């Protein structure tokens, strides 16, 4: 129990926790990290980061979020806010290390890995080109608008929209449970 609200940390809303974290509440911020850390790391992995890099960028994003917690106004979810921070940090890191290539070969033959009737979204995302995966992940994982993505990736707005649409179309085709691309073909 905390003195300020009488509620245990796990019972408190993100907005309240963020406000207390902005006032220096480390325990409150720790609860926000506990709640949203895995979702931030999952977004980064879907954007193409290896596990160790996703952990590093997520940690950096939460440090930045703690330092800027007073800027969080509760107009959206805390999870979406920190995911946007993480996505931007990842893009900066990739650009800085010159690993990002604006255009890659669109043709992908990577199989979709299934577990019974469940299709693995992360494996399906790997079948997209790097730029499609980034655009789709930023749009639908980090909640960024197309113009924000265009600015972050230094791409024309129409190109971003095309990458998102093409990426979503490919994912829909691959994730169809009974479609021709929805099942892993067995060679035997």
Task: Based on the model shown, name its key terms.
2 strands, 188 residues, two-stranded antiparallel ribbon, elongated, 8 helices, 60% helix, Rna Polymerase Sigma Factor, Chain: A, Arc Repressor Mutant, subunit A, mainly alpha
Quick description:
With 188 residues, the protein is mainly alpha-helical.
Describe how the helices and strands are arranged.
Elements: H1 14-22, H2 26-47, H3 51-67, H4 78-96, E1 114-115, E2 118-119, H5 121-126, H6 130-141, H7 146-153, H8 157-175
Helix pairs in contact: 1-2, 2-3, 2-4, 2-6, 3-4, 6-8, 7-8
What can you see in these coordinates?
By secondary structure, the protein is mainly alpha-helical. The chain folds into two domains: 1-100, RNA polymerase sigma factor, region 2, helix turn helix motif (Rna Polymerase Sigma Factor, Chain: A, Orthogonal Bundle), CATH 1.10.1740.10; 103-188, Orthogonal Bundle (Arc Repressor Mutant, subunit A). It has helices at 14-22, 26-47, 51-67, 78-96, 121-126, 130-141, 146-153, 157-175; strands at 114-115, 118-119. The protein has a two-stranded antiparallel ribbon. It is elongated. Mean pLDDT is 80; it is low at 98-115 and 181-188.
Q: Structural class from helices and strands? A: mainly alpha
**Helicity level, as a percent range?**
55-70%
Instruction: Strand order, main sheet: write it out.
Output: 1-2
N/C terminus separation = 60 Å
What's the architecture of the largest domain in CATH terms? Orthogonal Bundle
CATH topology of the largest domain: Rna Polymerase Sigma Factor, Chain: A
């Amino acid at each position: 129990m905390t003195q300020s609200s009488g509620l245990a940390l796990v019972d408190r809303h993100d907005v309240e926790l963020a406000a207390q974290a902005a006032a220096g509440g480390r325990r409150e911020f720790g609860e926000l990290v506990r709640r949203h850390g895995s979702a931030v790391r999952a977004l980064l992995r879907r954007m193409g980061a290896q596990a160790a890099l996703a952990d590093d960028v997520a940690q950096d994003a939460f440090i930045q979020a703690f330092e800027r917690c007073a800027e969080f106004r509760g107009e959206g979810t805390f999870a979406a806010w920190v995911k946007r921070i993480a996505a931007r940090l990842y893009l900066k890191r990739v650009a800085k290390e010159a690993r990002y290539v604006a255009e890659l070969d669109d043709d992908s033959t990577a199989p979709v890995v299934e577990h019974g009737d469940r299709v693995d979204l992360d494996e399906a995302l790997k079948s997209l080109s790097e730029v499609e995966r980034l655009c789709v992940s930023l749009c639908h994982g980090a909640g960024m608008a197309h113009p924000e993505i265009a600015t972050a990736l230094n791409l024309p707005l129409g190109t971003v929209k095309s990458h998102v649409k093409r990426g979503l179309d490919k994912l829909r085709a691959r994730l169809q449970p009974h479609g021709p691309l929805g099942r892993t073909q067995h060679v035997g």
